[in-house]
Amino acid sequence: MFAYLVRRLFLMLVTLFGISVVIFFLLRIVPGNIVDILFAAAGYVDPADKVDLEKQLGIDQPLVVQYLHWIGGLLRGDLGYSYVSEKPALQEILPRIPITARLAGLALLFSASIGIPLGVISAVKQGSRIDYALRVLSLSGLSLPSFWLGLLVLTASVAMFGQMPIFNPNPQSFAEAFATYCIPAMVVGFRSSALTMRITRSSMLEVLRQDYIRTARAKGASDAAVNYHHALKNAILPVITVIGIEAAFLIGGLIVTETVFNIPGVARFLVEAIRWRDYPIVQNLVMFIAVVVVFANFTVDMLYAVFDPRIRYTD
Amino acid sequence: MADSSDLVLEVKNLKTVFFTNSGLFKAVDDLSFTVKRGETLAIVGESGCGKSVTALSLMRLVPDPPGRIVGGSVSLEATDLLALSEAEMRKVRGNRISMIFQEPMTSLNPVIRIGDQIVEAVRLHRNLSSKQARDIAVEMLRLVRIPEPARRAREYPHQLSGGMRQRAMIAMALACRPALLIADEPTTALDVTIQAQILALILDLQKELGTGLVLITHDLGVVAQTAQRVIVMYAGRKVEEASVEALFAAPKHPYTRGLMASIPAVPAPGVAAQERLNEIPGTVPSLVRLPAGCAFAPRCKLAIKRCEAEYPPLIDWGGGHLAACWRAADVAEVA
Amino acid sequence: MAAIDFEVELKRAGAHATGGWRRVLFLAQRHVLGAAGLTIMTVFVLTAIFADFIARYDPLSVDAAHALARPSWAHWMGTDSFGRDVFSRIIHGARISLAVGIGSTALGGTIGVIVGLTSGYLSGWVDLMFQRVSDILQALPLLVLALIMTAALGPSLPNVILAIAIPLIPTVSRVTRANTLALREQPFVEAAKSIGMSEIRIALRHVLPNTLAPLIVLATAQLGSTILTEASLSFLGLGIPEPYPSWGRMLSESAAEYVRTAPWLVIFPGIAISLAVFGANLFGDALRDILDPRQRG
After folding, report:
1. Dihedral Cα A182, A183, A184, A188, nearest 10 deg
2. Smaller CB count within 10 Å for chain A: N or C?
3. What is the pLDDT of residue A303?
């Protein structure tokens, strides 16, 4: 177990290192930097000012030096300064994390509490009208773009209340909290609940074909006992994996949803920073996302060992 | 004839079909037999002859779709199982009629402890506290000669060897003392050394509990050791039925004779071994397009015109020795 | 025992569906949803091909006099803030969605297959290296990676295709690699080796065709996801640049303002995206059921 953990952690570090290299150099292969953009926006170019500013931001140095400087700072907890706001990147990023984390948590809760039961029903009633309806519903969940769903919610809100919900980071009432967090979370969670449902369904169908299900029936177990006790206990394992991985990949839905609903979370911040070529913010945010993904994968593997008695990480 | 109250199982004209995309598949066709209390009936045949579907039909566990029992009756202790509702049938399964499957590796739920799986079987049919059920489960594990039963009960299937798992399956099947036990190739998936132990265990427990046993196998050696009566199935039909002694002494159906001849005999000292194994030429016909006559005719050395045109009826050749063959009288001479 | 109509049961099992057309008809009946998906896909492709004939206006022509016109007989789906006809833009937008969908799936799929086969065959350090690169690419969500790629490459159609294709590579190569490894152990591959067939020939003649079914299934499943990713990128203003009529771009951030004043600008492009992706997903699902019996549900 210990050897396995060490190996796993080592591989995680290798992956994170690789991402840092890829991101850092990818962002810098295009001609044009923040200084060009700022100067173009300002409408004049004084070469001396430009060189000055480049020096000040440290982007006159060779890329490798810049990279080492970034990683060195990262290890000390110093993320550098935002080019745009000139504030420490950490100060810019940190307060936005809880907002996005709350949305993601709610979305996952929504995804699991809707997706798993519906997936089980769909599998148990395979071939019935309910199964058909649920499959169409889940496929449409995977087909509607989150941002469009968000826009539709806004349209409906205008039609019903004559106004759009305005984000308030510290909601005062239940209604406000609902509008601020729950509605966007449902918009994000709709897609992942559809995914959860599909995985649950196919996992259940796979398990229901197994010999031990026949054994359970041969004992005289009822359909409910067979489906929920014998089958679901086995079928839930792949579902955990998907929910765990989806937890990290929710960021895609969060990016567009935060944009639609004007929520000042990290996901929307990433898009803004990319547009402004605010490298310190972009590379640190991407590293943050990568760390979340890598740890989510790790947690899923550990959970697997908890839920499945057959798995013991020994090698 | 035995007293009818002694009968545990009486199957009459059972017919189970599968609706497949290549046509109607008659897996079991017009099958009748009986099992007495404490008796062992063996059903023999090649794979695909309908033995396993027969077993699942008795349990009413034929997967539907594509399978369906379309005719006949299955009377267990004078109750027609085919007439019961699904809820009533559930009370019978695992209680009065139990089954052991071929694959001990995959037939136990991998994420539930062995003991809990037996406890479940007990509590489904007996109104017991979980403590009492647990005691019965451990007692059953002891009965099937699993060492340290209390500890094993807390283990998961993957922690047990194949033989141990099959013992656990037997414990589970017998936990409610059923009137009839169906064992579908219970030893096929096991090591040869373990096979004999498991077989002996089933027979011992059967004797002890007075259970009727339907043993499904393709192995005539197993039949000779264990059964009192034998049914030989071919292409979904019963082609011969006899007591073990009568069958081995004088098989009436060419197919049975073929099965026996394909068992290699150990040569006596000083005698050269047979040069070539005897085999039955050809393969089992497709159950979808069965010939009008005897299904075995295309592979039979004795086949005559009539065999291809007309299906032979089951005829009693004396002492309950039934065979369905136009040339049953000539079988002994030819081979 | 209830009477059983054998003919009805057999028909349901498909026993009468022999021969080419009957078989196709049976499959269409069995997979109603898949047939619906195929129909949607066909309409989508035909729309893209014949966009010039279907569209009623030039999708790029600006008409300030009729800006933000409501849907009417003249403009079925209204006009946008530049007075461009929304219907015509949606019809032409099918080309962009299709180009990105097919382009990135084909590009990512081809590279993925090559990487996967190589990786599965040349186990050792090459395999190890590819695996680690896959890990890196897969540790970033599709949209994040595509966002950074387009930001790095600049917004244009080929760059968007490339940006969406790259995150697909590890998914495809993982599947190919796993299948290759499994197939290498198969007797027929061993047999080919024993008669002296070269590794490359074995890979192309024996391994690739046998791994094709899961790859086709995967590619169809990815088609919808690539169309969605393009829409998201363009929605965020980092995909297909103006004035090209990308469905996602038509919904761009400013759409939130039109929610109040011009909801037709929000509703119609969204329907177009959803329908195209829905069709691809329906078809992909049915294809998986037919080609990959192991997963049949």
Report:
1. 90
2. C
3. 79
Please report the pLDDT score of residue B1 as a whole number: 43
Token code pair at residue B330: 């000539």
- DSSP element (H, E) containing B8: strand B7-20
Position C15 scores a pLDDT of 63
Query: For the segment B95-154, what is each residue's pLDDT rounded down to a tens digit?
Result: 899 999 888 888 888 888 999 999 998 888 888 888 999 999 998 899 888 899 899 999
- Beta bridge mates, B10: B34, B75
| CA-atom Rg of chain B in angstroms | 21
Taking an 8 Å cut-off on Cβ atoms, the answer to whether B109 and A215 are in contact is yes
Contact B146, B118 (CB under 8 A): no
Q: With residue C108 as reference, give the H or E element that holds it.
A: helix C86-121
How many Cα neighbours within 13 Å face the side chain of B206? Answer: 23
Q: Per the omega criterion (within 30 degrees of 0), is the bond before B313 cis?
A: no
SS (H, E, C) A65-102: HHHHHHHHHHHHCCCCECCCCCCEHHHHHHHHHHHHHH
User: Interior CA angle at B23 toward B21 and B29, to 5°?
Assistant: 130
Domains and CATH numbers, chain C: 24-63+73-295 (1.10.3720.10)
State the distance between the two ends of chain B, measured CA to CA, in whole angstroms.
Answer: 32
Report the pLDDT value the prediction gives residue C17, as an integer from 0 to 100: 62
Select from B39, B35, B100, B101 the least CA-distant residue to B74.
Answer: B35
With H, G, I as helix, E, B as strand and everything else as coil, classify residue B281: coil
Residue A45 pLDDT exceeds 70: no
- Name the CATH architecture for the domain at A105-263: Orthogonal Bundle (1.10)
The pLDDT tens digits of the residues spanning A151-167 come to 998 888 888 887 777 77
Residue B19 touches partner C, C-beta closer than 8 Å? yes
CA C227 – CA A161 distance, rounded (Å): 33
- Domains of chain A, by residue range, sit at 105-263
Domains contained in chain B, CATH given: 4-227 (3.40.50.300), 255-263+278-334 (no CATH)
pTM, to two decimals = 0.82
A211 contacts chain B (CB < 8 A): yes
Q: Which chain B residues are within 8 Å of A307, Cβ to Cβ?
A: 111
